[in-house]
Amino acid sequence: MANLNQLTVAEAAEKLAKRACSSEDIVRAVLSSIEKTDKQVGAYLTVDAESALAQARAADTARTKGENKPLLGVPIGMKDLLNVKRQPCTCASKILNGYVAPYDATVVAKLRAAGAVLLGRLNMDEFAMGGSTENSAYQPTRNPWDLSRVPGGSSGGSAAAVAADEALATLGSDTGGSIRQPAGFCGCVGLKPTYGRVSRYGLTAFASSLDQIGPLTKTVRDSALLLGAISGRDEMDSTSLDVPVPDYVAQLGGDLKGLRLGLPREYFIEGLDAEVEQSVRVAVAKCRELGAEIVEISLPHSKYAVAVYYIIATAEASANLARFDGVRYGLRVDGEDPLDQYGKTRAAGFGQEVKRRIILGTYVLSSGYHDAYYLRAQKVRTLIRRDFEAAFKQCDAILTPVAPTAAYKFGEKLADPLKMYLGDIFTIPVNLAGICGVSVPCGFTSEKLPVGLQVIGPALGENVILKIGHAYEQATPWHKEKPEISG
Amino acid sequence: MNFVANIGLEVHVQLKTRTKIFCGCPTTFGAPPNTRVCPVCLGYPGAMPAMNSEAIRLTVFSGLMLGCKINPYSKMDRKNYYYPDMPKNYQISQYDQPLCLGGGIEIKLADGSKKMIGLTRIHIEEDVGKNMHFAASSGIDFNRAGTPLMEIVTEPDIASADEALAFLEALKEILAYGGVSDVNLEEGNLRCDVNSSVRPVGQDKLGTKTELKNMNTFKGVYRALSYEITRQISELEKGGRIRQETRRWDDLAGVTLAMRSKEEAHDYRYFPEPDLLPIVLTPAQIDDWARALPELPENRRARMMRDYGIPEYDANVLAVDQAVANYFEATAKLSKSAKSASNWIMTTVLAKLTEQHLAIGELKITPAQLASLVNLVEVKIINISTAKEVFEIMFAQGGEPEEIVKAKGLAQVSDTGAIEKFVDEAIAANAKTVADYKGGKEAALKALIGQVMKLSKGKANPGLVNDLLKRKLS
Amino acid sequence: MTSAENKPSGRIDVRYVAHLARMHLADDEIARLQPQLEQIVGYVRQLNELNVEGIEPTAHAIPVQNVFRADEVRECLDHDAAMKNAPLAREGQFIVPKIIE
Ligand SMILES: [Mg+2]
Ligand SMILES: [Zn+2]
User: What is the mean pLDDT of residues A258-269?
Assistant: First the structure.
């Protein structure tokens, strides 16, 4: 039998319901796996073992009293930008050193209500800015499949923890691919829900019009399960959609007959790694085998997505990160006057990538440049949205690679920010259009590095992409493979 | 050379909501520092704004009262600048699509003529916190941060300090009328930035303007503007020029001064607030709100003079406050004399309320009860000094005036027999006065009436006394 | 459309922009950021290839409007909790260097 830390969320929930094990057993198994492997992986920034065990025991007591919530006693890890009351929330930045959240993010409150145990804080690129988790101010996170490689980012800790069985499941956030890409690099399932499907309240904002919270899990079923638990309208987030939350798990199953899947010609381009392309093409063939009709489609403005993204995301970030000034929380470096204090605090507290993006975002909004950059980018964003609207008239979902390459070595792209940015070329358009996408393992490179298949759906099409991902997953062996480090 | 001034105001008005604009913290004034705050209004990581619907309604309502065009599509924007009292270091405001456009307020000039001061726009935004100063540092209280404000921007139509004052007073009155703001100046409910410039008569182009920020008393605006306009004119007359700058009004010294702080380049980098969605108002929604619009004070004054025949002075006093005007009208409708009703309210009622620091809504006397009191005097059941006594009782504990009069035996004696007794007594005791009257001294009758009243302890009906005396002495 | 809109120059006054963003950057930091930012700006200028005349800008990914909350009081943060994260506090207030107005 597998160790309890290797369980999926669905398996754990079933075992707990049958009283085959206790929540405390599971949490202890996860804590000991963290103890054993996280020195090498570095997925967690902090783990409050005592609090996790206390929550587990409370869940066990509740169960003996007859309570049976869907996630009762299941431990879930949090990316370090989600506010959990009485826990630190550093966003992997020095500027939030010492900050302790006085409130729960809505997703956290929802998980608590579903009975989940809130585990630890997961490493990330500082303020979610990056694609390799190398921009954490605190520590690197290593890819469990190859410790010399990055786990992807920005939710690198969330993906690595799941891959290394240091968590049953985690939450991450995705602004331009920050859930899907690390899921792809680490061989797990990462879902970026439709913009507005999940409340952002309590998610430290990077780019408010693009950010979404989503689950990183071992299986598509778990992804569906967690999405159901965290979705829904929230008064505290005006952009959360007032649309009923379907039973995503109940809609899983069956083959792909009757579904048309689009292959965008602009996504199979120069720069796409041959092994990655091969894996994705085989996966597409598998989907055809499962009954789907494959159609070629065009998303003509795809090549502009990265440029649009780096204007809009940095512009929004330049305002979102203005609040870190050393007055109400976090790091404070004394100055001669308030402005001097800001200048010094922010210079000392932010890392290179964050500074780079704040400056870029400030620049594209500044007087004289606003229309040329920011406004123009918003207009091209419209064109990108329209591309998808047109595409979804021809197909039910779209299949693409998650990233142009598999996980790369530390430092490989750090010196060249633009090269790093281009790594998000296949995931960014989904955020710009506000639609949903899921990353599902679809094979390995010759170096045994996971490759991800991205299934993109229309707005609120999570049930469709989860069904496709699930059918594909069940027909392939990839999700059962584990890195050596896991145990 | 003669100069004319162009003055434009940006008036920030605190809206009368229970809670802040983007969070559920109450807008109570005077709470201990940082006790009316939450993650949203403290700008915590992850916190998000949620728009208070009442702030929108009150602003649109104000726009309708001020004759603005209501923008069918409007949106919120971020205005980026750093200041310690601003939690997020950007203010959520409105940039290119404010809620209201155009409109105006008619003011009365000293010569009795009228002038329209045009409005450019009205938008909503959040207030900042409050700074306190210690010897070597400053402290910030964020209780006020996030209080809903509407910013009313005028055209540079105002030509003098007097006009500015008239505008502000008219505005204040209208806003109070609509119930959109408490317009309490002491609590900072109304603050304004004042832009002013001067230009030679005959020149169309506006002169270079200066800005006076955050003025919070009308008197201050008046004095600052009087000084600033004179300063600008004399500067130009000396052959100097006006620098575009922000100046500060030093109330003690009575002068405006250029701000000492480094002139920061302002680049607000506005962009649409991604956390808040557009506001789309349908004509049906706007009409629905418009149905509740109050009569504007100026119109009401004219109508009250017409409908109740009260003098302009009375109308001015009564119409300052909508609640007072309502109270007056309800009373007057039931009174035998509207002017008496007006006198009662202007003098006795308002004085008593002021003395006790009460609002008219807290008065224990209903308009019907006050009308009864007015009528008891009118039909001479009681005289005015008795009525004042009855009023005191009503004010303190409420109650119907008739019942109070009855219970306390305060009604005038109109029983001819009883009065005749007093008359006879008075005639018997004042032979000299009687003789004077009979000798042709009309004034002697007054003295005799006084005696009768005294004997009756003030309760005799003076009309009857008069008649009886005349009859007996003729 | 202004000419600047068609052909934004690739030069960035990094020191000035950093000042707008309230970050006191050291000279060597500016020197390092300068070429990186100019490379990125050069890249994003490819958007100028597109004709965007008459295209509505997208500010929100979802076509929703009029989302309001009722004017109802919610619980505030407890004062001590509000001050707990403050790097410097005095008499219940957040302390900053003296503000000169
Ligand atoms: Mg303003
Ligand atoms: Zn609040």
Answer: 95
Secondary structure letter of residue A237 according to DSSP:
B
Q: In a mutagenesis test of the C interface, which of A104, A238, A360 is the best target, namely the one with the most C β-carbons within 10 Å?
A: A360
Whether residues A201 and B277 touch (CB distance < 8 A) is answered with no
Q: Least CB-CB distance to A99: which of C6, C85, C88?
A: C85
Rounded Cα distance between A341 and C96, Å, is 8
Is B421 a residue whose pLDDT tops 80?
A: yes
- A241 and C21 in contact by Cβ < 8 A? no
Q: Which residues of B touch C75 (CB under 8 A)?
A: 24, 38
Tell me whether residue A32 is one of the annotated catalytic residues. no
Q: Residue written as tokens 């296949």? A: A426
How confident is the model over B186-219, as pLDDT tens digits? Answer: 999 999 999 999 999 999 999 999 999 999 999 9
Q: Which pLDDT does position B260 carry in this prediction?
A: 60
pLDDT in tens, B435-444: 888 888 888 8
Taken in order of first residue, the domains within chain B and their CATH numbers are 3-288 (no CATH), 297-408 (no CATH), 416-473 (1.10.10.410)
> CB of B130 within 8 A of CB of B163?
no
Q: Are A126 and A206 in contact (CB under 8 A)?
A: no
Q: Which domains does chain A have, with CATH numbers?
A: 4-260 (3.90.1300.10), 303-380 (no CATH)
Smallest Cβ distance to C36: which of A346, A377, A417?
A: A417
Cβ proximity of B51 and C67 under 8 Å = yes
Read out DSSP for C41-83?
HHHHGGGGGS--TTPPP-S-SS-----EE-S---PPPPHHHHH
Instruction: Name the average pLDDT for chain B.
Output: 93
Whole-angstrom distance, CA of residue C101 vs CA of residue C94:
18
Cα(B357)–Cα(C13) distance, integer angstroms: 60
Active site residue A448: no
Please answer yes or no on whether B34 and C98 come within 8 Å at the CB atom: no
Residue B212 contacts residue B244 (beta carbons within 8 Å): no
ipTM of this complex prediction, to 2 decimal places: 0.96
Is A79 considered catalytic here? yes
Q: Which residue's structure tokens are 């990839």?
A: A478
Which chain B residues are within 8 Å of C71, Cβ to Cβ?
17-19, 52-55
pLDDT at B264: 60
Give which of B54, A33, A341, A435 is closest to C99, Cα–Cα.
A341
Tell me if the pTM is above 0.80. yes
Contact A338 C97 (CB under 8 A): yes
A418 touches chain C (CB under 8 A): yes
